[in-house]
Each structure stands twice: as C-alpha cells, then as structure tokens.
Amino acid sequence: MPDRYDDLSDDAIVAHDRQRAMPDNTLQELIIELRSRIGEGPCLDAGAGTGAIAIPLATAGTPVIGLDLSRAMLRELRARLREDERVPLVRGDVTCLPFADDTFAAVHCAHTLHLVMDWRKALAELIRVTAIEGILMFGLGGGLSTISMLQDIQWRFQQELGEIVRDAPAPGPASEEEFTEAMTLLVVTPLPAIELRYEQTTSVEIDLHRLEHNVFGRSINLGQDLFRHAADRTRAWAVDRFGSLDEPLARNRTLTYHVFRKESR
Questions:
Q1: For position 4, what pLDDT does the model report?
Q2: Quick one: which of 191, 227, 157, 201 has its CA closest to 37?
Q3: Residues 6+ apart with CB under 8 A from 99
Q4: Contact at 8 Å (CB) between 196 and 137?
Q5: What is the secondary structure of 223-258 as a DSSP string?
Q6: Contact by Cβ (8 Å): 211, 158
Q7: What is the pLDDT of residues 169-199, one digit of tens each?
Q8: Which residue did the predictor score with more confidence, 240 or 210?
C-alpha cells in the first residue's frame, strides 16, 4: 500500500479536516439522517479519515467499523475516541476489502472515491460486503467554491502547478453523472438522496493551506514540494491582489449523499 498515506503531516490532517468541517447542528442532523437508514447496523465507514462521521455515529449508539488506508488517519481517529467510545479500526483498501460477503447492514463512504483510481472496483467491493437489502450512502464531495475570490485562488494555484498536473491521470468519477451511470450497472436500487445545506466560514489563507497540503487531492502522486512551491507563489500573488488573506468569508455549501439499497441477484 502506498506509503504517502502513512506519512501525513499534522498540517495535512488539519487541512483535511477543515475542508470537511460543518456546523455542529448540521452534523447532528446528518447523523440522524444516516442512522435512520443504517438501522441497527453494523455500519462500515469506508474512508473513515479522522472519524468525523464514525465517532458521532458510535456516540449515538450505532455499531460502526472504521476503515482507512492511512495509518496516520487511523492513529488520529483512535486518539480522538473517548474511553467509552468503541470504534474498531481496520487499515484496508476499498478495492480489496478484508470482510466477508453481506457483512454490513449499511456502508457509509464519503470524500473517498475521488482518491481511488479503480473506483468502479471499489463500488463492487462495497456492495459485496453489504447485506441484501442493506443501504449504501455515498458522499462525493463538492466542486469549486462559488466565492469569486477563492475561484481566482484555485485558478492561480493550478497555473502555478503547471502542465504536469493538468495532464496527470485523475482518480475517481469525473462527475456525479459518471458515478450514477456506474451504479445503474450494479445490483442496487436508488433511494431518495440526503441533502443538507449549511454555511461554512473560510478565508483565502485557509483555502491556500488546503491547496498546499493537497495530500488528499486529485493530483496526489506529485509530491509535497511541488504543492508548497505553487502555494507560496500563489500566496504572494494573492497578497498583491487582495491584501489581507485572513478576512473571514462565508460560503453556502450543499452536502449530498447518494443512497442505494442492495438487491438480491
């Protein structure tokens, strides 16, 4: 398994968590929605990261197993568990899951497929370990920011990275349409989606920090030095253009989960 997942810096983990942060009331609403579909469990959190979903699910009483490829992420998840919280952790690859067929009543998989080159194989594996009539919930993440200043930052950062990044193979589905089309070929039935809207506070500096530590981005194979150099050059450009990079910016976000039920063959 790739070592790059195991050597994540503290800054990279902070950047990862910032990108996925949501207000407490939105998180609680999401947990209620997820639990209403999981039922009695158990649930596999595939790509559990630092436990943003696995921990509150477990706290609410749902039996959950957290799986991730990164030892660093799993160490951080374990450190965040209280003594009374039980989340068994497994280091594993979503394209080759170490579980028997029909093991889980539900699967939660968010912000993960865009990292997986053979993502169709991952879908087949996640369906394989889900019980008949079990539920699969996929959060594919959002696109570029709708704040024009942050769009400018992201555009400039891509320019600084140059052609090598634009030509690099990108893992994951190219669009929600491609994901949905792939699911229609599998033995699942689509159910009503989960959709939550919330406001997130960010800044140009926070977004640059995320881009600089793009360990979990689409161009994951290119090395940290390249990202750091591009971020430094983008930061200097942004200071000349915008001045302070720490001014709070509020953006509206929509969190969407595609939900499916596994059918018998």
A1: 58
A2: 191
A3: 44, 129
A4: no
A5: -HHHHHHHHHHHHHHHHHHHS-S---EEEEEEEEEE
A6: no
A7: 677 888 889 999 999 999 999 999 999 988 8
A8: 240
Note the pLDDT of residue 219: 46
Residues near 35 by beta carbon (within 8 Å), at least 6 away in sequence: 57, 60, 62
- Amino acid 52 reads A
The β-bridge partners of 101 are none
Tokens of 1: 């398994």
What percent of the chain is modeled with pLDDT above 90?
Answer: 55
Hey, what CATH topology would domain 3-262 get? Answer: Rossmann fold (3.40.50)
pLDDT higher than threshold 60 for residue 143: no
What pTM was estimated for this model as a whole? Answer: 0.87
Helix runs in 68-116, H state only: 71-80
**CB-based contacts of 64, cutoff 8 Å, min separation 6:** 41, 42, 43, 44, 45, 54, 57, 58, 87, 108
Neighbours of 82 (CB within 10 A): 9
Residue with tokens 């253009």: 241
Distance CA 233, CA 49 (A): 30
